[in-house]
Design brief:
It contains 18 helices and 23 strands. The protein is an alpha+beta fold and 563 residues long. Keywords: Aminoacyl-tRNA synthetase, ATP-binding, Cytoplasm, Ligase, Magnesium, Metal-binding, Nucleotide-binding, Protein biosynthesis.
Length: 563
């Protein structure tokens, strides 16, 4: 492992601390009795406190120093005075340990008394301090020049998501997003618990990936010698519990879908699903409006939430628009009575990419998604989906070609999906068989037939309404974030590229290529000044690393920088 100069210096300090008999990573409990926030809120001059945190800045002025400690609640100023810390003749704790062997980023514990500085700053006068954890890497802290211009901020998105622990240290506002996420989930739990619904847990490893149309992750259980899937939805298990006699159950579920990644999709995501017996999708729309109104107030203090350039109003009621009417409004095509071929033709006319594996449901879904969805900024229930789009949904009581289903659109994206649940086991089997036909045509997102779920329905499931709400997307809305990676502590990332270590000869070649991108091969060899043997060895290795290429053109051989 190649260390930077600062990392080497910090390791040398670590050795010196140990030589002084100081354990840089002590095991004993440290008796913290205050935080930066509690000190400021309940400030008393002369009050004794014990606080711990990360050293974030300091200004050493001889035998005195002001510094800042950062804990989970914020920052507090601390004052180090040599004679307060070292009242006897031995001044090493201040002169050697504090001044020379501590670094920004180290975690320390402080025992002290509160006082107010001449400029009115609430401060801890340090009487004693303990090193609790030595930081071996320097923090990427922002700096400001004489004009107040800030630079070297830790704001590269990939680095922030990959090193969230650093992001949380140096960008305190990031923590606010995740605090608000907890408020949102707590608000939902409180709403459902007050109604008497039971929070439950269902399997993540499943023999059949049911409850949604999605491509699953596949794994293998060695002891049972069977394939298992990571859950794509928890719907079918929750409905089994309704069959078993619970009137209302809900779960915050980690779901997994082996599909694309972008600003609104992560392969691992959180969904809250609720199922309530003796209800329908009309009741669920009314309930969802009340829920989101409460969540907005609990999370932001208002029913109006700023999202990008829009102000979203979560106060009930929300408009209700049939999906086929929405398509007619935004495309001019009335697709209500079209068959698969006609829908495919309309999709092609609208410039939507389609293929032969797509049935009626998938085609309507694509048309709505591409041409309509983005128009619905304010919360809107899109209702009454065609039967082909909704294999788990009860047939519409007024139109047998439709189902009693809604999706809630907010800020141009789906936030929730809900049904009057299909509880006719014969109808459900036929719908599953239709999905099987789509799978045989090549649709890798078509649903599997879950024989055990069909067996459960044959015992009788009461009329039920269910909903799934995307928690990550809900948090994005409530925190005004446009990327799902901002609301996940540890989003899925591409493998980290390993740093390529080059020899001195290889560096010479690539440094010559870097400003121009490409150069005649002979010219590059002459400029490098390398012997034939070193040239051949270096260029072969650079080609193996994939960062150097020789291309033959009409004008001769050219060396190309492939980085």
């Amino acid at each position: 492992m190649q260390l930077s100069e600062q990392e080497i210096v910090r390791r040398e300090k670590l050795t010196k601390l140990r030589e002084m008999g100081i354990n840089p990573y002590p095991a004993a409990l440290y008796p913290v009795d205050a935080t930066s926030k509690s000190i400021k809120n309940d400030f008393e001059e002369g009050k004794k406190v014990v606080i711990s945190g990360r050293l974030m800045s300091r200004r050493i002025q001889g035998k005195a120093s002001f510094a800042e400690l950062q804990d989970s609640e914020g920052r507090i100023q601390v004052y180090f005075n040599r004679d307060e810390i070292c009242p006897g003749d031995d001044k090493d704790l201040y002169n050697e340990v504090y001044k020379k062997l501590l670094d920004i980023g180290d975690i320390i514990g402080v025992e002290g008394e509160l006082f107010t500085t001449q400029v009115g700053e609430k401060t801890v006068m340090v009487k004693n301090f303990t090193l609790l954890s030595k930081s071996l890497r320097p923090l990427p802290l922002p700096k400001a020049d004489a004009e107040g211009k800030v630079y070297d901020e830790f704001n590269d998105a990939e680095l922030r998501y990959r090193q969230r622990y650093v992001d949380l240290i140096v960008n305190p506002h990031v923590k606010d997003t995740f605090i608000k996420r907890t408020k949102i989930t707590s608000s939902i739990r409180e709403f459902y618990n007050q109604k008497g619904y039971l929070e439950v847990e269902t399997p993540i490893l499943q023999p059949i990936p049911g409850g949604a149309a999605a491509r699953p992750f596949l794994t293998h259980h060695n002891a049972l010698n069977i394939p298992l899937y990571l859950r794509i939805a928890n719907e079918l298990y929750l409905k089994r519990l309704i069959v078993g006699g619970f009137d209302g159950v809900y779960e915050f579920a980690k779901d997994f879908r082996n599909e694309g990644m972008d600003r609104t999709h992560n392969p691992e995501f959180t969904v809250m699903e609720l199922y309530v017996a003796y209800k329908d999708y009309n009741w669920m729309m009314d309930t969802t409006e009340k829920l989101l109104e409460k969540v907005a107030i609990d999370a932001t203090g208002s029913t109006k939430v700023k999202v990008g350039e829009h102000e979203i109003e979560f106060k009930a009621p929300y408009p209700r628009v049939p999906i086929l009417e929405a398509i007619k409004i935004h495309t001019g095509y009335d697709v209500a009575d079209m068959d698969e071929d006609q829908l495919r033709e309309v999709a092609q006319k609208l410039g939507i990419e389609v293929n032969e594996t797509m049935g009626v449901g998938k085609l309507i879904d694509e048309i709505f998604g591409e041409k309509c969805e983005h128009h619905y900024i304010q919360p809107t229930f899109i209702i009454d989906y065609p039967k082909e789009m909704s294999p788990l949904t009860k047939e519409h009581r007024e139109n047998p070609r439709l189902t009693e289903r809604f999706e809630l659109m907010v800020n141009g994206k789906e936030l929730a999906n809900a049904y009057s649940e299909l509880n006719d086991p014969i109808d459900q089997r036929e719908r599953f068989e239709d999905q099987l036909k789509l799978s045989e045509k090549g649709d890798d997102e078509a649903m599997f037939i879950d024989q055990d779920f069909l067996r459960a329905l044959e015992y009788g499931m009461p009329p039920t309404s269910g909903i799934g709400i995307g928690i990550d997307r809900l948090v994005m809305l409530m925190t005004n974030n446009s990327s799902i990676q901002e609301v996940l502590f540890f989003p899925q990332m591409r493998p980290e590229k390993k740093k390529v270590e080059l020899s001195e000869e290889e560096k010479i070649i690539m440094d010559l290529l870097k400003p121009v991108g490409q150069m005649p091969l002979g010219e590059l060899k002459d400029k490098s000044g390398l012997s034939g043997k070193k040239w051949d060895k270096s260029t072969k290795n650079l080609a193996k690393l994939g960062i150097f290429e020789v291309s033959k053109t009409d004008e001769g051989l050219f060396a190309i920088d492939k980085r």
